[in-house]
Amino acid sequence: MRKLIFKIHLLIALTTGTFLVLLGTTGSIIAFEPELDRLLHPHLSYVSPVSEAPSLGQISDAVSRHFVGEPIVAFLLPSSPDFSAQVVLPSGIVYVNQYTGEILGVRTRGQTFLGLARALHVRLATGDVGKDILKWSAVAMLFSLASGFYLWWPLKRVRIRGAWRHRRFWFDLHHALGIFSLFPLLVLAVTGTIIGFEDQATRLINKQPGSTKLNITQTSTQTEPTPGATPITPDEAVAIARAEMPGTIPYRVQMPRFGGLYRVSLRSSQDRIMSDSNSVAVDPYSGKVISSVGSRDSSIAQRILAVNEAIHTGNVFGIPSRILVSLASITLPLQAFSGLLMWLRRNKILLED
Question: What is the pTM of this model?
Answer without folding.
Answer: 0.85
